[in-house]
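> example.struct
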């Protein structure tokens, strides 16, 4: 993994190469409390050895990133941290430790993108397969995204099935912008799908695919023109990665409403309006270029996205909380091997859905990351996991309120 060290103004100070798996092994060998905590200390030591300093806040952010990556068994190739040059003079040996750097294009990309992933990879394959109840959406997404990335496949299809001709209908498909918008409630699988669907595309097309995640810090520091420049740079660097590597790119913007909010908002700052204009220009430019880049926006507030951006979207998927059928699939997936009766599964589905006290049910994330672990903790270490323990866990957990209700509580 390459760690880009940048100062408070965002200028790059240097790059530190680290063997993440080796450091994790060292942390586990120390056998003193949480290994991820030890990883943070070892990483900081490695950064200091290379001649840089990072504060405790950045160490904690590094631990958080590595904790998630360890859970997913997939480490980013590049991350950025804020720091400064160490007061200690760097020796020639320390400088040489940075010799195994990625390509210049990837180094530049790290200034703009929060993380860089390459598909196919095992974590993404597992994550994609774990998304239950989205089969219809996933099937359509993969077909359309594959064609948006590689229009040659559309031409091959037309020639194969229409007497070696490219039919007129293909023109309408080709004129669409390579933009997909995922909108919907918190915890409904938007980001998980956005981060993983590149894997089946890479496998089906038999090509490497890169995921470049735009950091929310792209909003900048409020300086006039900065946000526009950063957005323009993000599109430029994404194009550079696609052209120089010869591979397809998925450009992901999570929490897209932070950058793509509607210009119709009366309180909108001039700089934000300029940023939205830059996004639109970037989308339009990719539409007319041959660069294989697919843009994905994720948002909890689809209504807040600028109408001009939504009009340009080739696909807008609206994610909802799991329905009864999907809840039943989830209960079978995580508790089916406990030999629960169909009546007990139905009862769990009822507990997870809307009721008289609340008009909303549990999200996918609520069930996977909160309910299942809580149920295990009810039984561990003295008893087996049972229907009764799962019910107790339900009693102790409230589902995440819909986004508009969260805003109302602020």
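> example.seq
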């Amino acid at each position: 993994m390459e760690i880009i060290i940048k100062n408070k103004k965002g200028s790059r100070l240097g790059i530190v190469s680290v063997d993440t798996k080796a450091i994790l092994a060292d942390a586990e060998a120390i056998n003193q409390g949480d290994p991820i905590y030890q990883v943070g200390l070892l990483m900081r030591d490695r950064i200091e050895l290379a001649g840089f300093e990072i504060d405790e806040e950045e160490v904690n952010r590094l631990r958080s990133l590595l904790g998630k990556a360890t859970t997913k068994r997939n480490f980013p190739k590049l991350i950025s941290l804020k720091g400064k040059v160490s007061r200690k003079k760097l020796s020639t040996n320390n400088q040489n430790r940075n010799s195994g750097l990625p390509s210049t294009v990837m180094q530049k990309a790290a200034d703009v993108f929060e993380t860089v992933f390459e598909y196919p990879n095992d974590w993404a394959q597992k994550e994609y397969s774990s998304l239950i109840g989205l089969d219809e959406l996933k099937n359509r997404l993969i077909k359309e995204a594959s064609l948006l990335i590689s229009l040659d496949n559309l031409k091959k299809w037309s020639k194969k099935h229409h007497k070696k001709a490219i039919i007129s209908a293909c023109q309408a498909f080709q004129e669409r912008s390579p933009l997909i918008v995922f909108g919907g409630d918190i915890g409904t699988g938007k980001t998980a799908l956005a981060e993983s669907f590149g894997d089946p595309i890479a496998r089906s097309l038999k090509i490497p695919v890169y995921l470049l995640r735009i950091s929310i810090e792209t909003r900048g520091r409020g300086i006039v023109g900065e946000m526009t420049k950063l957005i323009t740079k993000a599109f430029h660097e994404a194009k550079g990665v696609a052209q120089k590597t010869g591979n397809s790119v998925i450009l992901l913007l999570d929490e897209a409403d932070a950058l793509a909010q509607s210009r119709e908002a009366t309180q909108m700052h001039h700089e934000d309006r300029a940023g939205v204009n830059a996004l639109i220009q970037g989308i339009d430019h990719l539409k007319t270029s041959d660069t294989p880049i697919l843009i994905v926006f994720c948002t909890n507030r689809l209504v807040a996205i600028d109408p001009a951006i939504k009009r340009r979207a080739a696909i807008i998927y609206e994610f909802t909380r799991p329905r009864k059928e999907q809840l039943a699939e989830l209960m079978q997936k995580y508790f089916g091997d406990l030999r629960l009766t169909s009546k007990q599964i139905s009862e769990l589905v009822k507990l997870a859905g809307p009721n008289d006290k609340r008009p909303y049910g549990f999200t996918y994330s609520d069930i996977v990351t909160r309910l299942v672990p809580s149920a295990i903790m009810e039984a561990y270490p003295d008893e087996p996991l049972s229907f009764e323990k799962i019910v107790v866990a339900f009693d102790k957990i409230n589902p995440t309120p819909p986004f508009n209700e969260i805003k109302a509580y602020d």
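> remarks
DSSP finds 19 helices and eleven strands in the chain.
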